[in-house]
């Protein structure tokens, strides 16, 4: 079957000017930006960085579709692979970072917001955006299209090609949502789970690139049948494409893991700062409690240190309740002496 388009033969750096402008692609991108900006203007104090992320994602998608990357995607398989990585590892996470769901909910009037909330809380949509479902959809879309007649058909048919691109962008957006975690999510992942989520993606994506690279025959005959007469032959082109998916895709995921790990450490620092800031207030609350003040000085010191040594704000609040309960018990039963407070606090510490 012939290719959907035959790209011009590049001479020197002429390929840099080989842009292809599609009216319907331009219309869709412009409409998307206009809708986002319209919503953004309706929400006071919505972070400007979210708008920047959306515009950057739109630019990345436009480059993948209309720049020389898009012009030569039906001629060179390795170029086509770069296009797909641009869509899934650059444009999609930028769209996820723009928090479109949060923006739509905040911009909507109460009636529309209730409808949107009902849709978001519906069982089918909760299943669709569940991290496990999103992971399977993304990895399945990549494997399913590259090792099925879909990829060959996409190269020779514009409609199928556009549907393939839409599948990649949507599945990748769903994949990155639980990682960036800026929109409402009923199954929010912890920072450690986000790192693990990206880590377990590396193996299937690396094996996909390796499978394309090591194939002993041409996987997509349309490229071989319409070889332009310049550039690598079909097998070498295929091997370059597989190497790009294997190596560049792996580095993209490693970059995501590093960013998620950095966000995890920053969250721990913020939590520690909040915990430290709340300590004086909690200790003042203890000192102002007559029951606690009635305890012997050594016990007050021990229990104060125990509260201060909590690993989290939640644990600290839990220990505060334990101490207050112990103080009230000691005041109501002053005849009980001995290190019972310490033993009780130790028991509570093991469960806190």
Properties at a glance:
352 residues; mainly alpha; 0% strand
Task: Describe the fold and architecture.
With 352 residues, the chain is mainly alpha-helical. The chain has 2 domains: 14-270, no CATH class; 289-351. It is 76% helix and 0% strand. The chain has helices spanning 23-41, 48-66, 68-71, 77-97, 100-107, 110-120, 123-129, 131-146, 149-156, 158-180, 191-214, 221-225, 234-287, 290-293, 297-308, 313-332, 340-351. The protein is elongated and about 95 Å long.
Give the helices and strands, then pairings.
Blueprint: H1 23-41, H2 48-66, H3 68-71, H4 77-97, H5 100-107, H6 110-120, H7 123-129, H8 131-146, H9 149-156, H10 158-180, H11 191-214, H12 221-225, H13 234-287, H14 290-293, H15 297-308, H16 313-332, H17 340-351
Helix pairs in contact: 1-2, 2-4, 4-10, 4-13, 5-6, 8-10, 8-11, 9-10, 11-13, 13-16, 15-16, 15-17, 16-17
Explain briefly what this protein structure is:
With 352 residues, the chain is mainly alpha-helical. It has helices at residues 23-41, 48-66, 68-71, 77-97, 100-107, 110-120, 123-129, 131-146, 149-156, 158-180, 191-214, 221-225, 234-287, 290-293, 297-308, 313-332, 340-351.
Task: Please give the count of helices.
Answer: 17
Calculate Rg over CA atoms.
29 Å
Distance between the terminal alpha carbons, to the nearest Å? Answer: 67 Å
What share of the residues lie within helices? over 70%
Look at the helices and sheets and give the structural class.
mainly alpha
Write the H/E string, N to C: HHHHHHHHHHHHHHHHH
Q: Main sheet?
A: none
Number of domains: 2
Assess the beta-strand content as a share of residues: under 5%
Q: Quick check: average pLDDT?
A: 83
Count of DSSP strands? 0
* pLDDT < 50 stretches: 334-339
Structural shape? elongated
């Amino acid at each position: 079957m012939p290719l959907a388009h035959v790209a011009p033969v590049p001479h020197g750096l002429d390929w840099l000017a080989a842009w292809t402008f599609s009216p319907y692609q331009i219309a869709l991108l412009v409409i998307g930006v206009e809708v986002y900006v319209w919503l953004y203007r309706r929400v006071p104090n919505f972070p400007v960085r979210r708008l920047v992320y959306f515009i950057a994602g739109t630019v990345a998608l436009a480059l993948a579709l209309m720049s020389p990357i898009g012009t030569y995607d039906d001629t060179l398989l390795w170029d086509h692979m770069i296009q797909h990585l641009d869509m899934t590892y650059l444009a999609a996470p930028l769209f996820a970072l723009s928090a479109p769901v949060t923006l739509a909910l905040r911009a909507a009037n109460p009636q529309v917001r209730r409808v949107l909330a009902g849709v978001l809380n519906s069982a089918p949509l909760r299943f669709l955006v569940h991290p496990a479902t999103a992971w399977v959809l993304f990895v399945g879309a990549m494997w399913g299209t590259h090792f099925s007649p879909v990829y060959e058909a996409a190269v020779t048919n514009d409609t199928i090609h556009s549907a393939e691109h839409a599948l990649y962008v949507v599945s990748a957006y769903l994949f990155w949502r639980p990682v960036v975690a800026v929109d409402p999510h009923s199954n929010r992942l912890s920072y450690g789970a986000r790192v693990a989520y990206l880590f377990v993606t590396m193996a299937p994506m690396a094996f996909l690139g390796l499978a394309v690279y090591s194939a002993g025959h041409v996987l997509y005959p349309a490229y071989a049948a319409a070889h332009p007469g310049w550039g690598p032959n079909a097998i070498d082109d295929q091997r370059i494409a597989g190497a790009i998916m294997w190596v560049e895709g792996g580095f993209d995921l490693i970059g995501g893991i590093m960013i998620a790990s950095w966000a995890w450490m920053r969250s721990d620092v913020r939590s520690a700062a909040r915990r430290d800031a709340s300590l004086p207030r909690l200790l003042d609350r203890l000192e102002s409690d007559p029951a606690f003040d009635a305890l012997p000085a050594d016990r007050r010191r021990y229990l104060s240190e125990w509260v201060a040594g909590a690993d989290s704000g939640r644990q600290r609040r839990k220990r505060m309740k334990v101490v207050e309960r112990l103080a009230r018990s000691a005041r109501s039963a002053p005849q009980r002496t001995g290190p019972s407070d310490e033993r009780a606090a130790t028991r509570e510490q093991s469960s806190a």
